[in-house]
Amino acid sequence: MKKLMIIVVCLYTGLLLASLVSADAGAAKLTAERCSGCHSTGRICEKLGNRTPEVWKQTVQRMVSNGANLTEAEAKTVADYLGTAKPGAKPLCQ
C-alpha cells in the first residue's frame, strides 16, 4: 500500500510539472505571436528580469491601448508570463 501511494504521488507530481511547463510554453507562444508583430522577440527578451510584474502589466495594457490584438485574458497571460520569465527564457528567446 505504501509503494502504491508513493507511485501515485510521483505520477501526480510529474503531471503537475508537465502541465506547468506546457502552460508556460503556451504563454511564450502567445507572447511571440501577438507581440512580435510590432517588436522583435529580441527586444522583449532584453527586458526580461529587468522589470517587475507590475511594470509588465502596465506595459502590456499600454500595448493593448495602442492596438495590440489581445483579449483581456490573453493580456493577463502575457503580462504574467513576462513578469515571471527569466532572461533567455525558451522558447521565446531562442
Textual characterization of the structure:
With 94 residues, this protein is an all-alpha fold. It has a domain at 40-94. Helix content is 71%, strand content 0%. The protein contains four helices and no strands. It has helices at residues 2-35, 41-47, 53-65, 72-84. Helix 1 packs across helix 4 (72-84). The longest helix has 34 residues, at 2-35. The chain starts with a helix and ends in a 10-residue tail after the last helix. The model is unreliable at 8-23 (pLDDT under 50).
What are the defining features of this structure?
94 residues, mainly alpha, globular, 4 helices
Output mean pLDDT.
81
Molecular shape: globular
* Alpha-carbon Rg, integer: 17 Å
How many E strands? Answer: 0
Strand-pairing-aware structural class: mainly alpha
Low-confidence stretches: 8-23
Tell me the major beta sheet. none
Q: In percent terms, what proportion of residues is strand?
A: under 5%
Oligomer: single chain
Write the H/E string, N to C. Answer: HHHH
Specify the number of helices.
Answer: 4
Query: What's the end-to-end separation, in Å?
Result: 45 Å
Q: Helical percent range?
A: over 70%
